[in-house]
Write a structure and sequence with these properties.
The structure is a single chain. Helices cover about 20% and strands about 25% of the residues. It is elongated, with a radius of gyration of 26 Å. The protein is an alpha+beta fold and about 190 residues long. The chain folds into two domains: about 120 residues, L,D-transpeptidase catalytic domain-like (Beta Barrel), CATH 2.40.440; about 30 residues, no CATH class. The strands form three sheets. A five-stranded mixed β-sheet has the order 3-2-1-11-4, with helices on one face. A four-stranded mixed β-sheet has the order 5-8-9-10, with helices on one face. The chain has a two-stranded antiparallel sheet with strand order 6-7. The protein has three helices and eleven strands.
């Protein structure tokens, strides 16, 4: 009887020991810095520039679990645009995927997806496929950088003078009411 129990314990121990180890994958996307950091079991493994959504097509913020993986995918919504190595994380179709628009990485440029360089998208896709979507967490934080569309997509150096003609020194409460005052009047009356 002891021999049978010992054999069963040894058999179960062998099954448990031979089971493949599963790692926790954490994909952190910061829209403010346009950067993705990938952690495996709490250890940083990768850090890559990304492109998230433009002002008109913001990438959703929150925590997600990938719902579907597609090595080859074409967007039916955006003129069959290629989306290689897609990791879908919302029911609305948002995905992390490769993009040939590598010169735009580091700036908001997508229709809401998270774009990566093709090589990085392939690496990430294989990692998520190997460890399993259920063991992967996608967390998107940050804000869309201000002025990204107005400054030609770079987020800096734009001319915003056409946006408003309001000058708080000549109109409004700083000018002492709703009466428009000239700059020469303001300089004479402190």
């Amino acid at each position: 009887m002891r021999r049978v129990i010992s054999s069963v314990i040894a058999l179960l121990g062998g099954i448990v020991l031979s089971a493949p180890a599963v790692a926790e994958v954490s994909i952190m996307v910061d829209k403010t810095t346009q950067r993705m950091t990938v952690f495996v079991d709490g250890q940083q493994r990768y850090s890559w520039p990304v492109s998230t959504g433009t002002a008109d097509y913001s990438t959703p913020v929150g925590a997600f679990t990938p719902s579907r993986l597609a090595r080859v995918h074409y967007s039916r919504e955006w003129d069959n645009a290629p989306m290689p190595h897609s990791i879908f994380f919302t029911d609305a179709g948002h995905a992390i995927h490769g993009s040939r628009a590598t010169t735009r990485l580091g700036t908001p440029a997508s229709h809401g997806c998270v774009r990566l360089a093709p090589k990085h998208a392939s690496i990430l896709f294989d990692l998520v496929r190997m460890e399993g979507p259920g063991n992967t967490r996608v967390e998107i934080t940050g804000m869309d950088p201000i002025g990204t569309e107005l400054a030609g997509g770079t987020g800096a150096g734009g001319d915003y003078s056409h946006l408003t003609s309001f000058d708080p020194l000549t109109v409004g409460i700083m000018a002492g009411g709703s009466v428009r005052r000239s700059l020469s009047e303001i300089s004479r009356h402190p």
